[in-house]
Specification:
The protein is α+β, with helices and mostly antiparallel strands. The protein contains 10 helices and 11 strands. Keywords: Iron, Metal-binding, Oxidoreductase.
Length: 330
């Protein structure tokens, strides 16, 4: 297993997006610094064009009522396991997303990871740079490393269930999954005085098989297959599971990757820890042969994480989605 841990404030990504939208304001200031200054309005460099702004009024509490929640304790019962696999199949087909509870990761490990991220973001910039390291197991990162390892094991378990829901063997690609690539990113979204004008992260899908997200406050939204944004509620101890582009490719389109975005809170800052899981950097993902037939002809090209990184460095990611480049008949 290869783990990469990143801790960031998303304005670097936001700046690139704004420049592609035609806003090249050079006064781009660190969002956390702006929040600490107590600003009452959003600087021009963060304001999105009207067509890209979040529709805050659309995301009413009722829009979260039927979002799927999977109780993984059902795996321990052979009868309930069959029901769970059906629930996962429905969630993947209808949403490309679900939340999991009773997943086996102790609440103390989750809390330690959140506390560690919060402590880091509260440090001055100079201290953050001093702590930068490629060694995830240094003492300052131990708690985050413990969480990363626990989430890796959860990913292996979830992949077995999802493969079964597709009619594949539970141990399909097991060795490749266990030895796969894991990228963990801790994000901080400061409170925003005008959340209807800006986004923490614009709409996108993730590349890997699964992204497992821990969030402290509401702000994550997924686009359902009717093109409506759905606010993902925070469940104490629960984790968000999103399907990525690799899963769409392997399933030959039976399951779709989840398009999602991060909105902002007018009062509270939001922390999220996202763990993206894929095959190894150079390992190609292909549609499973068992899922290609006359009714479901081969619909995707093979792809690797390396291919995805090359795409990011050479394309306009605002207007071209990577998954669209993989579809044989877009």
């Amino acid at each position: 297993m290869s783990i990469t841990l990143e801790v960031e404030e998303p304005e670097k990504h936001q700046k690139k997006v704004m420049e592609k939208m035609g806003n090249s304001d050079s006064s781009f200031t660190n969002a956390m610094e702006l929040a600490q200054m107590g600003i009452s309005s959003v600087p021009n460099c963060y304001i999105l064009p009207p067509e890209h702004r979040p529709n805050i009024s659309q995301n009413l509490p009722s829009s979260t009522a039927d979002l799927p929640v999977i109780d993984l304790s059902m795996l321990e019962n052979s009868i309930l396991r069959e029901l769970l696999i059906k629930q996962v199949s429905f969630a993947c087909k209808e949403f490309g997303f679900f939340q999991v509870i009773n997943h086996g990761i102790p609440l103390s490990v989750i809390s330690d990871a959140v506390d560690t991220a919060a402590e880091f973001f509260d440090l001055p910039k100079e201290s953050k740079m001093h702590l930068a390291s490629n060694n995830i197991h240094e003492p300052v990162r131990k708690k985050m490393g413990d969480y990363a390892e626990a989430v890796h094991m959860l990913n292996v378990k979830l992949m077995e269930v999802i493969f079964e829901s597709l009619g594949l063997r539970a141990d399909y690609l097991q060795k490749d999954i266990e030895q796969g690539f894991q990228v963990m990113t801790a994000n901080c979204y400061p409170a925003c005085p005008e959340p209807n004008l800006a986004l923490g992260l614009p709409p996108h899908s993730d590349y890997g098989f699964l992204t497992i997200i821990l969030q402290t406050h509401n702000g994550l939204e997924i686009m359902d297959f009717n093109k409506n944004w759905r606010s993902v509620p925070v469940i104490l101890g629960g984790l968000v599971v999103q399907l990525g582009d690799q899963m769409e490719v392997l399933s030959n389109g039976r399951y779709k990757s989840a398009v999602h975005q991060a909105t902002l809170n007018p009062v509270k800052r939001r922390l999220s820890i996202a763990s993206i899981h894929s095959l190894a950097l150079e390992k190609k993902v292909q549609p499973a042969q068992e899922l290609v037939n006359e009714q479901h002809p081969l619909s995707y090209k093979g792809t690797s994480f390396r291919d995805f990184l090359d795409f990011l460095s050479s394309n306009d990611i605002l207007h071209l989605k990577y998954i669209d480049t993989l579809r044989k008949n877009p």
